[in-house]
Amino acid sequence: MKKIILHTFLLIASLCFSLAQAQNKISVTNLQCEMLNNPEGIDVLQPRLSWQIKADVNDVKQTAYQILVASTLENLNSNKADLWDSGKVTSNESVNVIYNGKKLKDRDNAFWKVIVFTNKGEIKSATTAHFSIGILTYADWKSTRWIGYEKLSKDDSISQYSKLSARYLRKEIDVKKQVKNAKVYIMGMGLYELYINGNKIGDQVLAPVPTDYTKNVKYNVFDVTSQLKEGKNMLGTILGNGRFFAMRQDYKPYKIKSFGLPKMALQLFVEYTDGTKDVIRTDDTWKLTTNGPILSNNEYDGEEYDARKEMEGWNTINFDDSSWVNARYVQEPGGFYEAQMTPNMKIKGEVKPISIKATAKGTYILDMGQNMVGWLQLKVKGKSGDQVTMKFAESLQADGSLYIANLRDAKTTDVYTLKGEGEEIWEPRFIFHGFRFVEISGFPTKPTVDNFVGKVVYDDMKTTGTFESSNATMNQIFKNAQWGISGNYKGMPIDCPQRNERQPWLGDRTTGAYGESFLFDNQTLYAKWLDDIKYSQTQDGGLPDVAPAFWRYYGDNVTWPGTYITVGDMLYQQFGDAEVIIKQYPTMKKWMLYMEENYLENDLMDKDKYGDWCVPPESLELIRSKDPARMTDGQLLSSAFYYQLLNIMKKFAVISNANADIAHYDDLATRIKKAFNAKFLNTDKNYYANNTVTANVLPLAFGMVPENLKDKVFQSMVHEVEVTKQGHISTGVIGTQFLMRTLTNFGRGDLAYKLASNKTYPSWGFMVENGATTIWELWNGNTADPSMNSQNHVMLLGDLMIWYYENMAGIKSNPETPGFKQIIMKPDFNAGLTFVNASYESIHGLIKSNWKKDKKGLEWKISIPANTSALVYLPTADSKQITVNKTKLEKASITFKAEGDQQVLSLQSGDYSISLK
């Protein structure tokens, strides 16, 4: 009996020791609420909680979880979950778990952690996370007044080139007791900087994110407990113009929406250690001046700053503000107040110039070496009144001077006037530029590159993707895409950052947003953008081509507004975000019905506005093609696209529990497909319409081609690419969204590779060969009419970035398990590359794919995040050729099966080294 007890004890001890070893290698990290890095002041009462499991051992599966949520950190540390104890929930879900505890109220704090149960044992999150509720109702803002100054200063003007000086506001407050916690809630229109006792609050820039302020206004929340002291304190703000005071105020009012002069509403909510509370609000006791150093700030034209007018100590106590006026009560913007659920912009990096050269006219040309978005920091010494002018552009003329014709009427100029007190360092606050080159004039000494630093500015989102391959051209295209995509993230996805446009065009991101999601964590940005689109819907159901609708472009075509639906699909597929679909579904359905009722004729969508925008012209000198053979029928485009949207809406109907809608979508899709093939399919010659690549790729990609003709239609398309266009791209914005994947999915990854690696016109590589460091707006932007070419656009990327990751690296989310719960790893090893080294930080964790092939065989190292799995495809019918982690596949504990000439391995999480000889 003693031997049995001893044996049992040893067995238990051994198991405990093994479990402890396993737990040392497994951790729960990256706890997030609503996928936000800083979830202060959210307005979601049942937020979604997510976490990642990281492990150094293979085959880690979550079997259950227990979430603990408490009102204080002390309660949470004592495991007193006074807000919610989920109990042990049997589930493998670790993302988007909906809070289901006590009802949360205005300003409630919640601290949480999670206990995860796995097949390897129980793991507790080593860290805790926090979120807080914002101001939920309009009534809670009601006694907070909007303040501002509804007059122009003597040097201000409202015109095509409006100038408006910044508004400086200050308020001295008395903090009566010791502060336990304090938060400030601010709406500063159009842009703001907030100070307490002389210190800037937060490291954000160009805040808040832009919206249509008549529809919704975003507020930011900051914990300022450590900034306040007992006694006198000073609140200070600077208000810039942003999109609120329109960049072309009172110019083309039929097109450009404007909102008025800058204004602000603010609450400072203070809780004292004795339990009492206080609220400081904006009112007409705040003091204001427009006589500060920021003379003008206009996103198109630049910022003017006169350092002689600086007001030292203006945002601290005991400053003499007797010359300032009392702020005025002003009309509110009109939109509902919402917590900002996407990050603000930040300075995300620095670029040092590579050269500076004198010109014949006495100025200097600064070369940053990279087309970038942001501004310059200036370091200068000189006399009071010296004025340094910096004009920004993307390229140079033949004589070495700035090329500015493509900027249109944007002045893109910053002016700094010195105060003359030793070394002065300055950078603008309320503007950004898209530029590589800067003309410097008025510099008091001979400038060097050390006098300037480029500040890179975009939304504060994580870079999630890396990609490197054996092809140098493709690698540079990837870098160009990274720079272009990030630079055009400005609280909304804009088309370009340099000329007098900078608008959130829908058509630029229809499929592009999907590719971008591999490079950047853009989930909250695009969820916010879907709200912008929703708010822009007309009462009868129409959607604009630009949203927020700063430009009144309501054209009722399919391909641009359809982005509303395709971006929703991306958020579901890439991030597993079903809530965004449920939220947007009624508006999406309303638009679909609007288009059907107004433009469906004989079961075809008889409405198109832009065609296959930016088809490569037949000549390097043409801006737009004049060859009808290159143009794709607009009815074909809109009908095919609408058919695809119907199929997506069927999926959305299921997610939204609107199953009654499915029959209508099915019936209409069937009718459109029949009418489409009857009108456009040439069954004698096996191609659609006039046989453009776009005319064929859309029905192939959308599953509209009769089964018995798929291969023949595909061969017609291949002939156009390979023979007629000599292996070059011939699609515009619409066709390029589906070209690369369709070629590869039908077995011609080699042809897709040729398109991706080409260096001659038209191609992405042609841009690289001609010095591009971002993606151009036109395939021939340097040779046609450069004045029409933005050198930093993303719309021509199409599905290229998706193809990089899904078809070359083999990192794809299985559509049946959205959010990379199961990964499909199926690279096209025979397309033309000899190695790929890529990674992607999914919502479940880091996915890696690093393969290399030569005459000896294939070596492939992959990493699969914990609590996920992967289907791994290897190009051989012979399983005996495969080893996994130095073990023959047939002897390894791995499930595999043959599919045609491939072996498909079902791998659980972990790191694997696969060899194929």
In short:
The chain is α+β, with helices and mostly antiparallel strands and 917 residues long. The chain has five domains: 2-132, Sandwich (Immunoglobulin-like), CATH 2.60.40; 139-342, Galactose-binding domain-like (Jelly Rolls, Sandwich), CATH 2.60.120; 347-457, Galactose-binding domain-like (Jelly Rolls, Sandwich), CATH 2.60.120; 465-809, Alpha/alpha barrel (Glycosyltransferase); 822-916, Maltose phosphorylase, domain 3.
Tally of helical segments: 16
Overall pLDDT metric: 95
Helicity, as a percent range: 10-25%
Overall 3D form: globular
Measured between the Cα atoms of the first and last residue, the distance is: 56 Å
Low-confidence stretches: 1-23
User: Mind summarizing the main beta sheet?
Assistant: 10 strands, mixed
Remind me, CATH topology of the largest domain?
Glycosyltransferase
Structural class: alpha+beta
Number of strands: 48
Overall CATH class of the largest domain: Mainly Alpha
Shape-level CATH architecture of the largest domain: Alpha/alpha barrel
Counted up, domains total 5
Q: Beta-sheet strand percentage?
A: 25-35%
Rg (CA only):
29 Å
